[in-house]
Write a structure and sequence with these properties.
The chain has 13 helices and eight strands. By secondary structure, the protein is of the alpha/beta class. Helix 3 crosses helix 4 and helix 4 packs across helix 10. 43% of the residues are buried. Helix 2 links the parallel strand 1 and strand 2. The longest helix is centred in the first third of the chain and has 18 residues.
Length: 286
Amino acid sequence: MFPALGVIVLILKTSLIMAYRPVFIYHGILTGADSMNHLVGRIQEMHPDTVVYNFQRFGGWSSLENAWHQVLEAQTNLKVICDLHPEEGINMIGYSQGGLLGRAVLQTYPDHCVKTFISLSSPQAGQFGDDFLHLIFPSLVAKTAYQLFYTYVGQHTSVANYWNDPHHQDLFEEFSIFLPYVNNRILSVNSTQFRDTLVRLDRLVLIGGPDDGVITPWESSHFSFYNQTYAVVPLHESEIYTEDLIGLKTLEESGRLHIIVRENVHHYQWHRKNDVIDSVILPYLD
């Protein structure tokens, strides 16, 4: 009897080890949880029995609410999930705006349980471009959008919170209440925490590509951005990396930063095409 019991215990332990971690998914702007259903289904098809939490809040127009409000509210949801999985932890996928806000959720939650964070085509270094802007504000143009976004009123919207105009960096630092802080470009009482919480990750996966068509520049998905002449400063030459402001350099030097470039993928295909999901997302969900 006892040898048989030992075999059962061994099988249970093995099944726990081989089981996939739960996944928390954070949707993009002007959409909602429904838009991520294909990704949810593909994960569960390829990784059977995976528990997936598809973030239900801030769908549609409410996704334009102030970024800090969304982050702090989403943090309450993540805490509930972490309380359910205190031992094994979870993996997290943030798509588009959800990747930026999801990253900020981790930075404001020192004891988060996230092991792998996947940023799926997200404006991690900010956004600047007409194509994206016209999806939400058809009458605005990138050249003059700062006149609205870099104001007290403008900062009530999420897009304004990460709008990064390379020609008005003084106003960006003066008025933007979100991106300069979560990227530790402006130091605050939370700067050490903002860095330490990311360094706690087992893996940070940054995914983007040149045919995205929405994130502008597309390299923002890898924390690269324009300088004043519209040349993109590579990640490894950027201040956020060289000064290790949020731990990107530390993560890379320890083999925990994964930068993925995938061509021929439009912004709306990252979470809807099986071959893309299978090649750039599933390998990082263990």
